[in-house]
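Email to the structure team, subject: Aldouronate transport system permease protein model.

Hi all, the expression group asked for a predicted structure before they design truncation constructs. Nothing fancy, just the tokens so they can compare against earlier work. One-line instruction: predict Aldouronate transport system permease protein, return tokens.
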Amino acid sequence: MSKLKSNQLLNSSKTDKLILFINKVFLSLIVVIVTVPLLYVLLGSFLQPHILLTRGISFDPAHWTLDGYIRIFQDGTIMRGFFNSIIYATGFTLVGITFTILAGYSLSVDELVGKKFFVIFFLFAMFFNGGMIPTYLVVRSLGLLNTPWAIILPGAVGVWNLILARTYFKAIPNELKEAARIDGASDFMIFWKIILPLAKPIIFVLALFAFIGQWNAYFQAMIYLDDRSLYPLQLVLREILIQNEVQPGMIADQLARAEMQRIAEMIKYSSIVIASLPLLIMYPFFQKYFEKGVMVGSLK
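Reply from the structure team: attached below.
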């Protein structure tokens, strides 16, 4: 009997080792797939344009240059788009988190009058919406066209994020609120002093989702903005990367067309690196809340 158990344990141990080995190989491949393009873009942003176009990536320091970053920081269009994106993403996140947390907590309270109706209403809105043209007409009728509010307000409150917040709040024990009421705390004090401090994980997760989503967005700007000075960075990058055009105002020097194309290649990679910096800076600070917020908010 004991020999049978030892054989089962040995077989189980071999199976576990095999599964772990396969997982390590699989994860290593994912790391390579993700890392190689990032390294290519990063190195390409430091290479001289003619080296990048003729030879590809070079590890020779003699071929490296900071000219792409210098031109970006000197160029008003790209830097203006960068700061516009910061404003849009920050405003979108603040507005979305404020209303999502307030609505999510309200829907988690059992005493809310008409709670079932509001839940069904939000769920219906998640699956069915008016579409692009009715949304555009609403934005135009509100006088938001060609203003930053056309980017910040529409879509700031997502129903899925609202469901995550509601589920997270429902997981908080009611005994905490009852104890606070016995001590004389009002509903607002309970929300401000007890609920919000406990909701840091879901707040940070929703903030990260909202910021990343808005930072990478460009379609709304294409529809609602005509003034190029209001363009976000992603729309500027779209013109450079997809349409492969660099406006004359983007480059200070009066260069020949061939030289402009070489400079455009360098600006592409440098712009991608700069566009990725806010997300790379944010994620380490949000990481400790990410797993807990997603798991607690998505279960129950």
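The chain has a mean pLDDT of 78. Residues 89 and 297 are 23 Å apart (CA to CA). Ping us if the truncation boundaries need rechecking.
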